[in-house]
Structures are given as C-alpha cells and as structure tokens.
Write a structure and sequence with these properties.
heterotrimer, A alpha/beta, B alpha+beta, C alpha/beta, B: alpha+beta, Alpha-Beta Plaits, two-stranded antiparallel ribbon, 2 helices, 4 strands, 26% strand, C: alpha/beta, Rossmann fold
Chain lengths: 290, 70, 407
C-alpha cells in the first residue's frame, strides 16, 4: 500500500480550468468532420455532446438517428448506436427503433430540408404521436449538401442556386409547426448562443415526449457566399445574435420590434401521454382481457 | 478580500492543425486578442493575454482548439 | 394429427398466422386494398402477444419503421399493395444496402397508378426485383394457395434472417382474399430461424465483416454494440467509404449473398413435367388455372406439364433450362402484359418456343385460355411436322369455370 501523494498536496485555491473532453463521445479517427470551414454544425454538435454528458446517460442507451444532408452526418462521428438513413425518413426509422427498444433515448439530428420538406409528413406525425424522442433541426436555411438550394426555411428575398432572384416562398417557422402538430417541448437555440443551446438540448433530452429544438446555425459556404456575408463570424452576429431575441427579452418588446426576429429559448412545454407508455397500457389491457 | 492578491493564472492553448479549417471564428471572438490568423491557420500571438474564457473552444466548429490552465 | 385443427381462412389471414409463427413481433403499415386485412389482424393480434403494432403516416414511413424495429432486434413486417409498394422502393433499397432483415408483403392489384384497387394482377413481378435503384439482391416468394401463404411467410422470415436481406412475399388479390381450409402446424413443426447475434466483444464488432463469409452476424441497438449503419457504401465497420475497391467489393458481396445460395432459396413445384411435351411456367393464381389445364389436357392425350416457381426471384434459371431441353414449347400465362415471360425466354436460350398468355382485364386467366393456347401450339407443331390434326378442345368456358370451383 502506498499513500497517494496527491493527498499530501495543499488544496488548490481555485479549481483549474479544464476544457470539456469530447474524446469519449467521438469515434476514433473520424475527425476532421466533413463540414465546411465555419459551418455551425460543429458548434451545435459540441453543445449536444456536453448536454448528453450532463445527463449522465450511458452511451449504450442512446441512439442517434439521422436522414440525409450535412446535419445528418452527425451520427457518423459520435460513439452511440447510430443510424444514418434516407432523406427525410429519420423519424420513421426512429419510431420503429424506439418501439422495438423503448429503453433507448432517441436523438434525431436532421436539417431544415430533411425535416421540413421531404420529411415534413413524418415530422408532423412524430410531433402528433408524442413518442419520447428529441428532434434537433440544424436550421441553416439552405440545402448545403447539394450546394446551396432554397429550403423550406430560406427567408424571403434570400439568394440560393434555385432562387437566383431571391426566394419568393414564405418560410416555415419550425417551432410554430412543431407546436401546432403537438410536440410537447418546443425550443429554439443558435450556434452563437452555445451555452444556452447546451441547456436547451439538456432539457429537451430529459423531457418525456417529443421535443423539438430548432437550431439556427450558419452555412458560410453557400448561404453566406450567395447573400454577401463576409465571414462565418459575421453570419453568427447578424443572423444568430441580432436575428433572435430570447423569450424573456421578447416580453418587453413591441410587435414592431419583434418583426423579423426569431424567438430563442423554451417556447412551449406541455404534458401529454407519451406514446410508448400508452402502447404499454394498451398491451396490458388487451392481455388482461384474454 | 483584497483584489491585489489575485493570482496570475497562466494558460496553455493547444491548436490541432490537422483539425483546424481556418474559419477564423476563434480569432474573431477572442475577447483579449490572443489569437491571429496565419494564412489558413490559427496561431497564438499573445498567450499572456489569455484569460481562459474558453470562448475559442466553445465556438470552434472543428474540435481544433483547447485551453488548459497551467 | 388429431389435435391439429383445420381452419378456414383468407390468404391475408394465413399470412399473419405465418408471421406470428415465425416470431414476427413488429408490424408497421398503412391501409391499402387489397392487403389491409394483414394490417388489421396484426393490429388486433400483436398487442395480445406483447408485440408492437403501429399505423404509420404512409408506406414510406412503414418500411422505414420496420427496418428501425429490426435494428432494435424484433422480427418485423409490413404489407401493402400496388401504389404503396411503389412508395416503399427507396426503403427497400436501404434495407438491402444496410442488410437489415425484414419482410414486405405485396398483395398485387391492377396498375399502373391507382389502377383497379379491387382487381387482381401479377404486374409487380418485375418491380419486386427491379423497383429500387441500383444493383441489389432480391428474394421474392410467390405462393399460390392459402396454405402456401402461411408456409411461405414463415420461409420469408427465415430467408430474411439467414441472408440479412429484405424478403418480399408477392401474391395477387385472388390468393389474398380467397378462403381455403388450412392446418396451422404445431409450434416447432416448421423450422423457424432466428438471427445470429455476434459473439465477439462489442469493441471488436463489425456489422459488415466478411472475414468469415458474406453474411456477418447482426447485433441489435441497445445491446452494448454501438455500431453505425448507413445507406452510403460502407466498410466492414459500417462507416462510409469512398475507397473504390471497397465499394466494388461491397456491391458484389450484396449480390453474391443471394447468387451463391440460390439453390437453397429456389423452390419449385413440378406437375406432370417428367414426360411433358408442352410446358407451362406459371405462378400465383395463374398457376392454379394452369394446373387445371394440365389435368384436362392430359385427359385428351396432350402431354402438358407445369413448372410453378414458389421462389420467383432469384429466377429459377436451372429449372427453366432443364424444362426447355425437354419440351417443345413453354407457355407463360400471367396477369400482366408480359413480364416474367421474357425471363423464361432468356433462361430457355432458344431451345424451345416461349409464348405468353396475358390478361389485364382484372379477371383471372382461365384454364380454357391456356388449353386453347396449348392446343394451338400443338397444332402448329404437328402441322409443321406432318400436317396431322391434333385433338381440339371441345369444352365450354362455362364448364371450366364450374369445374374450377369444384376442384
């Protein structure tokens, strides 16, 4: 038996600052990721991993499911049960998986095009069912993987390769859509507000039922370039910081002042029976009748 | 408590060149101008100025920079 | 056999019985005629055995959900028809690519598009093989009776687990809605194959490892094996690759899984084929008419015989080749405008005449049509030889129809 030398040292006055260690959550040899320089997805991923760490959940009990697109590449980098599926269909796969293995915590990483265009139907029905899963919509208002086409969240007037003269389509508000469809936890964060985002995702994961987080982040390569943003930082400042107000700040603002700004924070929270629990009740009732 | 007694804290900044994509977010957001761009790469130009706020790490999309207190 | 009860049931019901017998514990689907009974029965029965039933928002979601459930470790199935099967094609390709076992039932109705929902058809045989894009393996089973639907459903689950690939059960509206007496075997009487789980430690597990053969064990999510699944071309560890050699290896391996084992997957019924001079190649409901026609023709001294594929994909090349060496002509009756007939032609390699009988008015092909075609073929053959008159059918269509009902 040797005495640990550490015990003899005087206690440090202040705890030393150490950076968060992402290593246990990142699969060996998978970095660098495919995302472009300045892409907000990496910042979102880091907030997500810190949030998961705080929950203390076992990596074996987390399944990350995605569709197709830049954001949907997330599962390939992280050390969970990971499923990279078809464009728009992540929620359908997630629904099957959750019902088959209810102990799994399902986190779906999807994009604005994946979730709200091609996967729009699955999105509203997932919200309606209120199955316990967290849907993270990495919302950069453009199709990045296919090099910059308009998406269902591209603001009117903005340029894309399929909207060279500016988009004339009104965009979806992810949160309003999710809330109307029945999601019981609806929130919005941005890559710029990384700390707030971490807290929101943490709350979303712990929420029982379908939680949706709309995450505004930047696509400097396409959206930024087409729309005359000079740097990723400028996009973060103008779109994520100046383009949003927290739910608290919004209370003090007039409708005119809120015009064109996205609400940030937990926008809606309610309680409704969770699907898997309801299904288990149904099974118990049916089996009791036998 | 006397402010004068505050200890000078020192930091080490690790930049992983294989991961850095040169987006300059860390340089733009560093509150004490510790970092600078050298072409497409981030360099530490004034380590003494670092206050260990970790903003560079938290906003780095590429897992390419970390700050350790020495 | 005393305690084995005979039950009178519909084809679609027999399909669910087969699924439960095989251990199916997950059903996701979307209502569509003429397959809906499969879904309704699953919705009633699965909760009773602790299984999962969910009605999804469309067929696309349905096939995705069963693949998700299968990755969670449950045997899973969906059933659909025509337009729904079209919607499932992308998901079918994903299941092929990711090698996730599942069973898809397609009760064929008349198409294209909405077509004639309540009318039978056999026009999805090519879609079942080629519907999803890219080269991919296909195992498609084509039962022709209610009892056979039961057994082929069990076999579909078994093949799916053995070869880690989706298996399609393809039958027409008539077989699906027809009622016949069947005996459900006692548990254990019919072999049920379960998934091979990995026996290596989780950190060594590779979901597409081909070191020990083309089919690797499949772990379930949540059991400690944290693996990656993607529809992108991937390496043995499941992660995407752009290595050209790995891509080719993976593509070839996918096809090889079925190609190298086709003798184990093939299943045919031969009826009076040994001495046949005229062969019939027919599947599903058309094979029932063909069987009747063979019996009637034999009574008239015409040596007709039937080759009925129960596995329609992989295509029974060897059986057709063998038949083509022995018969003078092969007649292919099918309820479409010519699909599997060209496969028969390909496999016969010009050794004999191949002639299709097509019917798309949503009525089944009747025995008399096949008989007339065959007597015509015999006539043509004998005229070519010596000008002698062959026997000619004198039966009326009415009689044939009544006889079909009776026997």
């Amino acid at each position: 038996m040797s005495t640990p030398t550490e015990e003899l040292k005087p206690l440090a006055k202040k705890k030393k600052k150490v950076p968060f260690n992402y290593e246990p959550y990142i699969r060996g040899g998978k970095l660098p990721h495919i995302w472009c320089p300045g892409c907000g997805h990496g910042i979102v991923l880091k907030s997500l991993l810190r949030a998961i760490h705080t929950t203390g959940m076992s990596k074996d009990d987390i399944a990350m499911v995605s569709g197709i697109g830049c954001s949907s590449r997330t599962p390939g980098y992280v050390d969970f049960n990971t499923l990279h599926t078809l464009h728009g269909r992540a929620l359908a796969y997630a629904t099957g998986l959750k019902l088959a293995k209810p102990k799994l915590k399902i986190i779906v990483t999807t994009g604005d095009g994946d979730a709200l265009a091609i996967g729009g139907n699955h999105f509203i029905h997932a919200c309606r069912r209120n199955m316990d899963m967290t849907i993270l919509v990495y919302n950069n208002a453009i199709y990045g993987m296919t090099s910059g086409q308009s998406s269902p969240t591209t603001p009117q007037g903005m340029i894309s390769t399929t909207g060279r003269y500016g988009s004339i389509e009104p965009p979806f508000d992810t949160c309003q859509l999710a809330q109307a469809a029945g999601a019981t936890f609806v929130a919005r964060g941005t890559a710029y507000h990384f700390q707030e985002l971490e807290k929101i995702i943490y709350e979303a994961i712990l929420h029982k039922g379908t939680s949706v987080v709309d995450i505004i982040d930047a696509c400097p390569t396409y959206y930024g370039r087409f729309n005359k943003y000079k740097t990723p930082s400028e996009m973060m400042e103008k779109i994520e910081k100046e383009g949003t107000v927290s739910v608290k700040q919004a209370e003090k603002l007039t409708p005119e002042e809120l015009q064109g700004k996205f609400l940030r924070g937990i926008i809606h929270r309610s309680e409704r029976p969770e699907y898997c629990e309801e299904y288990n009740k149904l099974v118990a009732t049916v089996q009791a009748k036998k | 408590m006397a402010v004068a007694e505050k200890e000078k804290r020192t930091f080490r900044i690790d930049i992983y060149e294989n991961l850095c994509k040169g987006c300059s977010i860390c340089v733009d957001y560093c509150p004490t101008n510790v970092l600078a761009m050298d072409g497409n790469l981030v360099i530490v130009k004034d380590l003494d100025a670092c206050n260990g706020c970790q903003l560079c790490d938290n906003r780095c999309p590429d897992f390419a920079i970390q700050v350790f207190e020495e | 056999m005393a305690n084995q009860k005979k039950r009178f049931m519909q084809g679609n019901e027999a399909c669910t019985e087969g699924a439960f017998y095989a251990g199916c514990r997950f059903y996701a689907g979307y209502p569509i005629t003429p397959s809906t009974e499969v879904m309704e029965i699953c919705g009633t029965r699965l909760p009773k055995v602790g299984g999962v039933f969910i009605q999804m928002e469309d067929e696309i979601a349905s096939i995705c959900a069963i693949v998700g459930a299968s990755l969670g470790g449950l045997k899973a199935m969906t059933a659909t028809s025509g337009p729904g099967f079209s919607l499932m094609q992308e998901g079918l390709g994903f299941a092929c690519m990711t090698e996730v076992p599942c069973v898809i039932v397609n009760v064929m109705r008349s198409g294209p598009s909405t077509g004639f929902p309540t009318g039978p058809s056999q026009s999805d045989v090519m879609q079942a093989k080629w519907g999803t894009h890219g080269d991919h393996p296909a195992i498609v089973l084509s039962p022709a009776s209610v009892e056979e639907i039961f057994h082929e459903t069990v076999r579909a689950f078994n093949l799916s687990e053995i070869y880690r690939t989706p298996v399609i059960l393809l039958y027409d509206e008539i077989i699906g809605h027809m009622r016949e007496a069947i005996t459900i075997p006692e548990p254990g009487a019919v072999e049920v194959i379960n998934r091979v789980a990995p026996n290596c430690p989780p950190n060594e597990y590779k979901p597409y490892d081909n070191k020990l053969g083309d089919i690797a064990p499949l772990a379930s999510y949540g059991d400690g094996y944290r693996f990656h699944v993607t529809g992108l071309y991937h390496a043995a560890d499941g992660f995407p690759t752009n290595n050209t050699k790995m891509i080719e290896d993976a593509a070839r391996r996918l096809l090889r899984k079925v190609d190298d084992n086709k003798e184990r997957i093939w299943k045919n019924e031969e009826y009076f084929l040994d001495d046949a001079e005229i062969g019939i190649f027919a599947y599903g409901v058309s094979a029932r008419s063909a069987k009747f026609a063979v019996r009637e023709l034999r009574k008239k001294g015409i040596k007709a015989g039937l080759l009925r594929p129960i596995t329609i994909w992989p295509f029974p090349d060897a059986a057709v080749e063998e038949m083509s060496k022995r018969v003078k002509a092969i007649i292919v009756p099918e309820m479409n405008l010519g699909q599997i007939v060209y496969e028969v032609e390909r496999a016969a390699k010009g050794r004999c005449d191949v002639k299709g009988i097509f019917r798309v008015d949503t009525e089944p092909i009747r025995p008399i049509q096949i008989m007339d075609c065959i007597t015509g073929a015999v006539l043509a053959l004998s005229e070519a030889k010596n000008g002698a008159k062959p026997p000619v059918s004198t039966m009326t269509e009415m009689m044939v129809e009544r006889d079909m009902i009776d026997g």
